[in-house]
Amino acid sequence: MITVAEINDIDRIDNFRLAWRSLLGKTKGITFAHSPEFLEQYWGHFGAGLKLRTLMITLGNKVIGVVPLVVKLVPTKMGTMRVLTYPLDGWGAFFSQIGQNPAATMVTAMRHIRNSKRDWDLIDLRYIDQDGLDRKRTANAFKSVGFQGSQSVWRQLPLVKTQDTDWTSYLSSRSVDTQQQIFSAEQTTSKTGHVAFYRSQLEDPLAPGWNPRWDLWTEFEQMEFSFGNQSTIAGGSFSSSRKLAFLRDLHGPAVRAGLARIDALFINHALVACAYGLQHAHGTDYLAIGRQQNASPEVITTLITRMIQQSILDDEPSLNLSLLSPQFANSWKNQDQKSYRCSHFPIAAPRSQVLRLNRWIQQPPLKPSRTELVASAKPELKLSQTPDSDTSIEITAEAPAEWDNHQKPQTNDDQRRFRVVG
């Protein structure tokens, strides 16, 4: 018999850790954000004011699926709403249920939510890979238990496809302005001294000489995280110091899982720029890019250039810079993907129904879509200041910007040691 154990206390996660970890190896499209360690760090840094509702799907005495959920208070034009959603908040591109039976897991989870006391005003599951691994399982699970399952695009994801290409082909696909920006940055940085690029792909922590690169991290967190007036740290509108504290605590478990990446640019053996990301089977999601305060902004362009060149050499599928800012990523993208949201607005919650009507008015009907290679149209890099406020709310009071159709493991053999390129 399939049953559900609901966890509302983060300390109880430890009781299910081994079962949860065993499911990660059986789940397609898994990222570090699906791990219990990520949820624990997320909760420790951003869990104030949220309610944890992690669902453990069991068959007999065996856990066959996990669905991490939270209820968060979200200010809207209709007042503060209680939203049942995934605990990701911009720290990844896609999210999903965990386990090798995703359809059964999701249907069971939604049936449990339907039959439980309602402590939410609407369900809004975002970061869904509907065109890929999800295959409308989430929407079908909603409908199977009587939820409307309203679907819409959550985020446009401008990606850098680095597999099955070469640097010459990639560079020729860039606009003239972007090519000039790359060449100018290379000239500027090379004039200041010897330029070297380091990529730390962290090896098995049980291997002799294992190094988690805390030396690089210590310098990294002292950097300036901006490009123009645009923040270059993922994670929404939390303060930079709060987000860096989260990433620092995340680095330990991520590096032990072999999924952390540090890309660094050195000039005359001094670290001038650094990027931090989390790797997964489909590429790397970059969560922060910084530069030394006395370094020119051009070092960021040079760093990204070397990152792309190295990923092409490594035959890595893609790099995701869109979590930092879609506008920041647009100059580099040669591929577009979409992540979706699936929502349910209960009839018994009138304010939720008003939000549903508002979204329906503002967004066009959802059309079937696919991953597309984009033409090399001249990118418009419009930089705007990201709010730097201390808040656990992802959606601002005045913004249906977050409520409309706005644009949003390696094996041991594959793990490479820290090396120098260039």
From TrEMBL:
Region (Disordered) location: 371-422
Compositionally biased spans, kind Polar residues: 383-394
Domain of life: Bacteria
Biased composition range(s): Basic and acidic residues: 403-422
Name of this chain's protein: BioF2-like acetyltransferase domain-containing protein
